[in-house]
Amino acid sequence: MRWRFWRRRTAPKTAGAEVILGGRRYVTDAPYILPKDLGEINRLDFQHFMLRSFLHANFLAPVGQPHDILDVGSGTGRWAIQVAQQFPQANVFSLDIEPPQARQSAVVEAQPDNCVFVQGDVLQGLPFPDASFDFVHQRLLMGAIPGPRWPDVVRELTRVTRPGGWVELVEAAPVAGNGPALHQLHDWMVQATRMRGLDVTIGPRIGDLLREAGLQHITYHDLPIPIGAYGGRLGVMAETQYDALFSGFRPILVARGMTDDAGFASIMQGAHAEIAQSQLTSPYYIAFGQRP
């Protein structure tokens, strides 16, 4: 495979500083608010399979037969591995703030020769020359990118995309329900992330961000994934993912004095009851555009 075009533009700032809260590991030298540990790896893998089940694909952009692909915010690496298997002729780079050896996912899947994991931080600039990739993919970084930095990040994704290539963004939003427990969880998430400068309401605006970065042929999709038993297998998966997500938030909420363990458990119990009594959705959003 052709790897020679890759060169690091700057030495990355590593996500080495950490703190343990409630038995969960969090990085402290990056805006990322969710844990970086085995429990979060399992949640991210589960979320990946939930999204793939809903979309019946790993992406929606009409990329054709790309030669070079970049996944920004690789997390567990599952997406990159599967896309490398889908396009064996392509070079697939997967970038994350954690070093490649920290990736514990996909242990039952052999890493293809055409897939490489790279440490880096999109907030510091991508370590690739201009126009390096035919397809650039970034998914679920609302918990990692400060609100004011989103236009810069999307411009950076566009910079490394070749003319005619595609950029795809995937984001989510907190579940909105009519009951007090779901309202409380929603408010906690918004408040906790805002304390880190993050904006978990960015999802509906990702199409506009692509347009502002100069991309064309923008396509935007709302993806209302059912949450709860009424949605069948997918709905149960969405509720399980939702529970695991807030399990990762709980130590942050407790450490900041927003609740305690008993109060959190009571609210979660109420949220599951409200989900069971309603036909709610877990909002996700996909937008993709082409570089002229």
Report on this model:
It is built from seven helices and nine strands, in the order ββαβαβββαβααβααβ. The protein is of the alpha/beta class. It has a domain of 190 residues: Rossmann fold (3-Layer(aba) Sandwich), CATH 3.40.50.150. The longest helix has 24 residues. It is globular and about 50 Å long.
Question: Which key terms come to mind for this protein?
Answer:
292 residues; alpha/beta; Rossmann fold; seven-stranded mixed sheet; two-stranded antiparallel ribbon; 7 helices; 9 strands
**Helix vs. strand class:** alpha/beta
- CATH architecture group name of the domain at 18-173 and 199-225 and 284-290: 3-Layer(aba) Sandwich
Beta-strand share of residues: 15-25%
The gyration radius over C-alpha positions equals 19 Å
Strand order of the largest sheet: 5-4-3-6-7-9-8
Q: What is the CATH class designation of the domain at 18-173 and 199-225 and 284-290?
A: Alpha Beta
Report the helical percentage.
25-40%
Using the alpha-carbon principal axes, give the shape.
globular
At the fourth CATH level, what is the homologous superfamily of the domain at 18-173 and 199-225 and 284-290? Answer: Vaccinia Virus protein VP39
Distance between the termini: 27 Å
Largest sheet: 7 strands, mixed
The secondary-structure element order is EEHEHEEEHEHHEHHE
Overall mean pLDDT stands at: 91
